[in-house]
Amino acid sequence: MASNLDAGDTLTVQQSGLMYSIARNAAGLSVIAFNDTDVPVTLVEPGSVSVDPNGRRHVLIERTLLPRTSTRFDLPPRVTGVIAATDEIGTSRAYDEGGILLGPRGGATLRRDDEDDWRWFNGTARLLLIWKPDGGEQLRHELVFDKRLN
Fold first, then answer.
1. Higher-confidence position of 117 and 72
2. Alpha-carbon distance 86 to 3, whole Å?
């Protein structure tokens, strides 16, 4: 499906029980993945990646979405200087570089190191999301975004 996304617009895409809400932000796009199923789904690492316009792959941190919960992916990533961990119930927590807990981060996309820092002025970026539902087969969702300067 192809669509133009103007400032203030939101695009919603449904795939295999997951709903993706896509909106523009100051630097690029925010993609919110909502688990609309009755079972937890886990984002599989290292197969799940974002791909920047230069073709570099950036591994996404494994996380679990309980039924009726969501997580956010930002293209490009917005948080710097922290690393993240996801606990057994799917809560993302941010830590500073010294390992000090900064508090819950509501599913924000957090970068791991300087290699994950990229800018998106023009070109194509992708999200390859591999989900594993409890007791089910893996789901592979690829979202492709093309940003063009006018």
1. 72
2. 33
